[in-house]
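Hi P.,

Sorry for the delay on this. The queue was packed all week, but I finally got your sequence through. Input first:
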Amino acid sequence: MPARPILTVAEMTAADAAAIAAGTPGIELMERAGQAVADAVTQRFRAQPTLVLCGPGNNGGDGYVVARLLKAKGWPVEVRALGDPATDDAKAAAARWEGTIKPLNGSLAGSLVIDALFGAGLSRPLDAVAANAATQLANRPDTVVAIDTPSGVPGDTGQPKGAAVGAGLTVTFHARKPGHVLEPGRSLCGEVVVADIGLGDTPSKTVENGPDLWLPRFPWPAATSHKHSRGRLIVVSGEALSTGAARLAARAGLRIGAGLVTLYSPQDALAANAAHLEAVMLRAFDTDVELEQAGDQADAAVIGPAAGVTESTVLNVLALARTGAALVIDADGITVFRDDRDELFSVLDRDDVLTPHPGEFERLFPGLLKASTHRIDAARRAAEKAGAVVLLKGPDTVIAAPDGRAAVNLNGSPWLATAGSGDVLAGFIGGLISQGMESFEAACAGAWIHAEAAELHGPGLISEDLPGLAPAVLRRLYDER
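Then the structure:
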């Protein structure tokens, strides 16, 4: 199964238009959409008083279909409309509704509400009447089902420009839009159901991050594999009082399958590291030249976790960049170049991975987040500028490649909000790259496995737990391959 696309509003409009041009009437697509919503509602709720709020466009037309189908199943349904239907298909759908149509006003309390006011295409603020309805619904998402997107949530950005509905369930069609996967739209949508209404395949460079994207090329060992064939990863340690982050990354690389993981440590940190390492090997280094020699023998290298924002870190990154090892650069390895970004970009290539959180992203790409339409756009532009894969962390983590590919994580876990979890992620990615996985896919796989591992543990998670949780996720992936 191919990776599932994330489509802009324009791409979705084009897919609709292509289906209609190929012979499927618009009203038939509307009927399919309404049926999908009605099915999702009846699967999750018992029959109860239901308000269907219909806007003037095709989103409202979908609402009229839902109202008719629920009423046919015996549900007590009331339709409230924001003006008359304005499109031919919406007019046709409204004409098939045999109940009364009341204006959108008054209280919306006490009922299940189907929000069919405006869909993904609305990019302006809601007007007064719709904004009043959205305000009433904002704090009761468990009783709200949105069609396409909650009204007030733009499909292309997920960033409301005023009042917006909060839904517990959103039913969209054909593919998710950016507004479904980027905060705050992602949270406002609640559970998202993507219904197939027969539009066929729609390729996109932006996709959902999940096993469909990378599992067919995951680097499982073969019967003839040995530790040297499973990848050689090196991780660079910080000074004596800053060693834990690198050990987290090293252990993560080992757990994700790298055959040999070596922690390269400054002399003063050797004792601290030696006291905590078992299967991870330990080597001392004093100069960037020695680190460069080590990198020449490695497939991938992780540098940055608690490395120190020092000239030594600059030299160590540049030394590793002169080797054949693919780099995963995190934390201090990013921050240390905030005053000389071009020097870093000049030594990176498409096999390298940068893993910034938003603050670190701003240091390397000042103003880019604010200037971009959304996080997907920002990460994509950053990857092009850096010439490397960029993983922009957050509840809606975005992974972008220099060639324009981008994936958005849908399984972000709040339990990852703990010190050291990013170090583990860097180790997962480095470990996968060392085994021969293409860097963009390794970053996508690492981010997904990282979040799944956190969900397995849940409350009380600390970063030390994460590497040990990875095998359960890997076993499930292995069984599903």
